[in-house]
Amino acid sequence: MHFVSELVGFLNTRKKFWLLPLIIVLVLFGGLLFFVGGSAMAPFVYTLF
Amino acid sequence: MKTPLYILGISAYYHDSAAALLRDGEIVAAAQEERFTRKKHDPDFPAQAARYVLEEAAIGLDRVAGVVFYDKPFLKFERLLETYHAFAPRGLKSFLTSMPVWVKEKLFMRSLLEKNLKNLLPESNKLPAVYFSEHHLSHMASAFYPSPFEKAAILTVDGVGEWATTSIARGDGPSIMVFKEIHFPHSLGLLYSAFTAYCGFKVNSGEYKLMGLAPYGNPRARQTAEFEEKIRGELIDIREDGSFLLNMAYFSYATGLRMYEENRWKALFGAEPRTAEREDVPQTYMNMALAIQRVTEDVVMRMARTACENAHSDNLCLAGGVALNCVANGKLLRSGMFKNIWIQPASGDAGGALGAALAYWHIGLGMERAPQKDDSMRGAYLGPEFGRDDILRTCKRFHAPYRSMPEEKILVETVADLLAEGHVIGWFQGRMEYGPRALGNRSILGDPRNPEMQKCLNLKIKYREGFRPFAPSVLEEDAEKYFDIPVNSSYMLLVAPVAEKLRKAVPNGYEELPLWERLYFQRSELPSVTHIDYSARVQTVSRRTNPRYWALLSAFKERHGCPVLINTSFNVRGEPIVCTPADAYVCFMRTEMTYLLLGDVLLAKSEQPPFNGGDCWRTEYALD
Asked: What digits encode the pLDDT tens for the residues B211-250?
């Protein structure tokens, strides 16, 4: 939670909320890769791209 | 009694990680991680350096009030995302390479730091608070707060931190006010690094080689003038106030894994990039080095003028990687623009650890500042010291015969006589230096009057490129007799001309001669420290900051009539400067040094037992 509040604070100070979707996608993909491994991720990746 | 407040500064995860500790704002200790891990430019969390600085203060991490990291990861991430966005679809490969590291680690820098700090404090759950200082603020703080000035203009120039690549500010008491910044991708440091790479040297470590190569460029050659014209006309647009824009069509560092657009550079300069494997350096690259050095000096000079006008001060503080360009620093000094110039000895990213801690102390906590007469860096001798017991243990471990010399007068006279006989001596004493220069505590010494010494040191001791120059240490009191340097240069960060009376005239057509003929021509009475253009990177040695090294120079002067010695860092090519007596002994045995002084113990190579692994350094250390 600390990370999220710091990140929101940062985006607010810098007025850069347009970066938020990109960061969310990157972090979610990163998290998925980390927790479920590459092969389990494949169906999501194929659906998206 | 009031409990002292400790602040720990950390720089890490890019290159040259380091730790620095303040006690009530006073610098207790600072060291680079590479010295402990023996991995040059080690970027990892500085666990050993942090452990050392805490030991030096005899405290645990639980006594530290705050840990300050030297840059702001979110801001850096913002720069990366915006840069990839601006250049898309170029840079996809670089994006895919860098993002996993960011998403996995660097974006969560606070957690990463806390995890590593916890390893330093396994027995307790209480961690100090972690703060983040902006990269250029860390540099500015490292340049201004330890300086001897109450007020000063501050100029920091480097490759890149978060966004800023250049900052101009004014320091006044405990405050720093920024006037101007130049932002990524427009960077003087990265421009210089691009030429470093094109001339066949490593980025982030070979920049000083390019600087050393520049004087070999022919100042009268048409090619040099054309290169300079092309740089100014095509690569960089320099404005009157020193601000500049790079033509990004020629650079790929913003999105690529290389520094420059090879085809465009080849078409522009009419030369292939020099490969790192190539032993010789053709004249074209020397002329190129001279051209970019001239452009760099011009930009630095203009920016300094802007700093001077904005800050209304005749004192200047410098930091950032470009501040290690001592040729530009020397010219800045001789321009007379500033009465006093102070340069942070750890100007690169390692110095960011100290700057971050100082920024938190003065800006974060609002603490007052009391400038010291010389400065508050203690001669940059801020690293670990090893006592007689450690040294004798090392001798025992290697079964090394030694001669003990507890009386300092005898010790310095003996070493002075050996140097005059032509011996190359490893000189290890006191606290290790903070920053890239060896300043007389972890040094290899030689006689500068010996014309063979440069060749011998480069090829037999340091195993590095033969064209590389060596720097002199001179007694502070005699500096002006030997060099045209009106101020102290304690940190070897100013290049000055060798005094006119010591110079020897070069023959007609000297600039056209092949490199080695020019190099081995005796240009002065101190041939081994006189660079090809009669310049020298001078270290003035003060009795106050390094009494034993000062005593050695005094003994050399008294007994052999010369207050100057060659001083080069105690390492071989690609190796970090030695830290412990054991590192020093191993380096001594692997090279052709003939004597080694460890504290007050003298070891002669001729008396040492055979050493296994004499050539191992070639595989152990990647060439830089």
From this structure: 999 999 999 999 999 999 999 999 999 999 999 999 999 9
B104 and A19 in contact by Cβ < 8 A?
Answer: no
Q: Which CATH architecture has domain B388-620?
A: Alpha-Beta Complex (3.90)
Q: Does B55 reach chain A within 8 Å, measured CB to CB?
A: no
The domains spanning B6-140+346-376 and B181-343 adopt the same CATH topology: yes
Segment 8-27 of chain A within 8 Å of chain B by CB: 10, 14, 16, 19, 22-23, 26-27
- For B267, residues 6+ apart whose C-beta sits below 8 A from its C-beta are none
Tell me the nearest-neighbour CA distance from A10 into chain B, angstroms: 7
Q: How far from B97 is each of A46, B103, B451, CA to CA, in Å?
A: 20, 11, 49
Q: Judge whether residue B449 has pLDDT over 60.
A: yes
Q: Which CATH architecture has domain B181-343?
A: 2-Layer Sandwich (3.30)
Percentage of chain B beyond pLDDT 70 is 98
Residue among B78, B104, B108 minimizing CB distance to A19: B78
**Full domain range(s) for residue A43:** 2-48
Residues A6-35 have pLDDT tens digits of: 999 999 999 999 999 988 888 787 776 666
How near does any CA of chain A get to the CA of B355, in Å?
23
Q: Does B97 touch chain A (CB under 8 A)?
A: no
Identify the CATH homologous superfamily for domain B6-140+346-376. Answer: ATPase, nucleotide binding domain (3.30.420.40)
Q: What is the pLDDT of residues B246-266, one digit of tens each?
A: 999 999 999 888 999 999 999
Residues of A in contact with B111 (CB under 8 A): 3
Would you say how long chain B is, in residues? 624
Residues of A in contact with B99 (CB under 8 A): 26, 30
| Mean of the per-residue pLDDT values of chain B | 94
How many domains does chain A fold into? 1
Degrees, nearest 5: CA angle B298-B504-B522: 90
pLDDT reading at B157 higher than 70: yes
Q: Check if A2 contacts B (Cβ < 8 Å).
A: yes
Q: Do B104 and A34 touch (CB under 8 A)?
A: yes
User: Is A26 in Cβ contact with B78 (below 8 Å)?
Assistant: no
Tell me if chain A has a CB within 8 Å of the CB of B82.
yes
pTM reported for the whole predicted model: 0.94
Q: What is the dihedral of CA B346, B350, B356, B357, to 10 degrees?
A: -80
How do the domains of chain B map onto residue ranges?
Answer: 6-140+346-376, 181-343, 388-620
As a whole number of angstroms, the longest Cα–Cα distance in chain B is 73
Residue found by looking up tokens 């840069």 in the block: B83
Contacts of B101 (CB under 8 A, 6+ apart): none
